[in-house]
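Each field is set out as follows.
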Amino acid sequence: MRLRELVFGCACAGAVRAAARLGLADALDDAPLPADELARRVDADPRALGRLLRALSSYGVFEERPDGTFAHTPMSRMLRTDAPDSLHHIALWCTEPWTWQLWPRLDEAVRTGTSVFPEVFGKEFFPYLQEDAPDSARVFDLAMTRSSRQAAADLAQALDLTGVTEVVDIGGGQGHVLAALLEKQPTLRGTLLDLPQVVAGADTRLRDGGPLAARARLLPGDCRRTVPVSGDLYVIKNVLEWDEDSTRRTLGNIMKAARPGASVVIVENLVDGTPSMRFTSAMDLLLLLNVGGAKHSRDSLTALITGAGLRLGRVTPVNAYLHAFHTTVPG
């Protein structure tokens, strides 16, 4: 029966996506409601919505009460757009239309070890998003922003900034990690290094007029080519998921730029030794399908770190799905 449930996994993912697109979690407040009232609120067919809610309840997303009403569960509350730990846009991103065309080609990607995205859509993944799927690109931006903010808060709490005066956030997107670190330590200065179009959309706290702007530098660039800034602490989160050559070049560029004794904290999802194995191993397969990338095991990331010449110290959990590799540039 478990295998039968697994092969119908698309039904579960599709049901969660439907709930997010319908706005079901936002439509339901604290008081349980019958399906017909929820249907009225989200403009859906009452009978069909009842069937959707029944399916979701079997997975713990909403709860069907004995009186036939439906109530929130901890998981369904995370589908609310106003929830502090909202996964609304993540749920949409992981089930975007293009994903349903890629998963049936997983056997091809496994045979070749490369992405099938260009064959399916005629171009690479990110150009496709920007040129052919702007709505999906918007969902991606919203999902990454929400995820990054949540992870940034966890990472800022976990990092010891004693003695650090200059931090460099490499490939840091909108700079949520940098902003969280600057807010944590008022004497800290920092640099956000990412592609020009990414840095242009940096967190408003870091831009001119923002409360952290005086201590922040926004630096357009590509860490795979050069890291033209020196610091005490380098943070690189969820970036080393490309091909191994790009990863080696990035770590090598950090080694060239960093002061002896500088700390380099590499933050990644792991596909082993973690309570989030099902999530991270699924993301690993999706990376194979869409960009030909990969999530790391502890051993594979350790090999890349030591191969670059960094000295590896502790490996600590940041949260249930992220680990921090604390490394040092040899003196």
